Amino acid sequence: MLAMSGAMAQTPEPSATIAGAAAQAERQLHQSFTNLAFEDFGPAPVKGPIYQASAGNRILYYAPESGHILFATVYDTNGVNVTALAEGARVQKRLSAIDPARALVLGPPDAPTIIEFTDPDCPYCRALDRFWASKQAEGKQVRRLIYFVSGIHPEAAAKAEHILCSPDPAAGFKALYSGAAPSPLATCAKGHAKVADDAALVVKVGITGTPTLILDGKLVSGFQQGELEAFLAGHVKAAPKGEPAKPPALPAKPDTG
Predict the structure, then answer these.
(1) Separate counts of helices (H) and strands (E) for the chain
(2) Who has the most CB within 10 Å: 131, 184, 201, 227?
(3) Percent of the chain scored above 70 by pLDDT?
């Protein structure tokens, strides 16, 4: 009985064990991330194992034991953003569903290629089209692979079909995005099939808003002019002053299989 009491006396109190674990964790934190200064340290409400999931266009983390969801950026001890790596791998997997041969192509074949998910009734998409036109006037052309998002505005599908059924789809695209309101809207089997095909692709890729662009494998949501300018600066050389910009080649017609 005495021996048992002695053994029990040597067992640390739960609070002491927790405090010791916290102190060890804090020391490890400072040793692993020596370039960061931490002002305080204490227990977090998150408990148990944490799992990685995805929703929309982002990675998130879930702790089922404590019922917490974390929208966070995770770094390893080498400073590598592992959340960004996971997001990149996920985007690349989704982008593998895109078949360039099924796009409406605008722009010359030798220009840098961007993938563009667009909606004829989206004001930001129309602003983006004006941006590309202004850059073309500067001799900075791009090759746009166009896919239509038809689930946001009620007339988007009909207008996309009109563009695809036009004798010159590039001209039809330009007219509608410049504010034209043709009546009646053109229809055809190929255009209808392409709009449906694009709608299925939008679901596969996980596009939730327009415009959505893919630049060098990176998904860009919205009309982010700064990112577009940076892309052009790295890929497109403007025509010399006094030399007119090379006119764009005729766009390829969409391939709907």
Answers:
(1) 8, 8
(2) 201
(3) 84
Residue closest to 209 by CA, chosen among 156, 173, 170, 141? 156
| Separation of alpha carbons 189 and 18, rounded Å | 69
- Residue 172, burial from CB neighbour count under 10 angstroms (0-12, 13-18, 19+): buried
pLDDT for 226 equals 94
Cα 60 from Cα 63, distance rounded (Å): 10
- C-alpha dihedral (136, 137, 138, 144), degrees to nearest 10: 0
**Mean of the per-residue pLDDT values for the chain?**
85
Cis? peptide before 169, omega within 30° of 0: no
pLDDT digit string (tens) for 140-171?
Answer: 999 999 999 999 999 999 999 999 999 999 99
Strands (E) located in 185-256: 212-215, 218-221
Query: Could you tell me if 73 and 214 are in contact, meaning their C-beta atoms sit under 8 angstroms apart?
Result: no
